[in-house]
Amino acid sequence: MSERKRVLIVDDDPDFAAGIRAILDAQYDTAVMHNPEDGWDALQKDHYDLLCLDIMMGRGAEGVMMARKIRKDNVLREMPVLIITGLREQIAFLFPGQAVHPGFVPVDELMEKPVEPELLLQKAAALIAASEARKSR
Amino acid sequence: MAIATPARRISFREEVENLLHAEEGVSLIRCIQCATCSAACPAVEFMDHTPRELIALINAGMKDEVMASNTFWTCASCYACSEKCPEGIRPADVMYALTRYSLWKDTFNRDWVAPEFSRRFTRTILRTGKSYEPGYAPAFIFEGGFPGVVREMRMAVRLLGKGRLPLLPSRIKRIRNLRAMVARVLPLDGIQ
């Protein structure tokens, strides 16, 4: 049997992170970090096959900055990044009716909260498989 | 190899400190409840919990009480508390962190003046690059009743006399550049 893949979840909301983790735990080894700094440190220390990243953390849209930093990193740039965000709701008061810019940051996939468990598992599996296929080429 | 991860659920204090991960200052657990922050605060009389109480509530994990409080929306951002804290805690940063957290989680009271003022201020800045005080007047001038209107009008006349109150809104040059900068950090499809 092949080794279980490893997923890192970076989200400042402990309840949401626990929910995502409970879904992914069925198929993956998961780790949770609650701020981008700890998330970045975890990526430096261990290898992960997928990153599930929140946008609004810390001072603001720090998930965007973390995704950009990952894409500039020689080692981490190949890792698939799945953004899970409630951005539209989070900024609805200041910017009502605004859509999220589709090309704002180079990530592999963007899902909006709340997340459908089946869909999350499907997307995680597809992103990891695509990344494996890229590596073996 | 085991994955290094916090398996337990983090406390509310840690949740707040995660919002402050990039700021200076020490952990809220260092608070000795001396109330220097509350004594230094010029806006404390308008707060339902003093800054000292708010930090005690955070340390006690009373998230619902903290998020329902008007304290952080009432903060005048003068930083007197942060300057005077003998332990090196920065309560003003905590206030800012809780303000944005309550916006993200939509837990703030929409009847309060501060969130609505914040919304109008932000939109004015994005539209023109400058604050335009007379633009806020219609929404807030009646908040203090008739005496409040008289007080505000007097203030406006004095400011006008000194040339400190613009009659017409103006905008900065190259407002597009400002919007482009904002769009880099706030991924919106088009800021209006």
Overview of this protein structure:
The complex is a heterodimer of chains A (137) and B (192). Chain A is an alpha/beta fold and 137 residues long. Chain A has one domain: Rossmann fold. Chain A is built from five helices and five strands. Chain A has a five-stranded parallel sheet with strand order 2-1-3-4-5, sandwiched between helices. In chain A, α4 links the parallel β4 and β5. Chain A is globular. Chain B is mostly helical and 192 residues long. Chain B folds into two domains: 93 residues, Fumarate Reductase Iron-sulfur Protein, Chain B, domain 2 (Orthogonal Bundle), CATH 1.10.1060.10; 73 residues, no CATH class. Helix content of chain B is 52%, strand content 0%. Chain B is globular and about 55 Å long.
What descriptors fit this protein?
heterodimer, A: 137 residues, alpha/beta, Rossmann fold, five-stranded parallel beta sheet, 41% helix, B: 192 residues, mainly alpha, Fumarate Reductase Iron-sulfur Protein, Chain B, domain 2, 2 domains, 11 helices
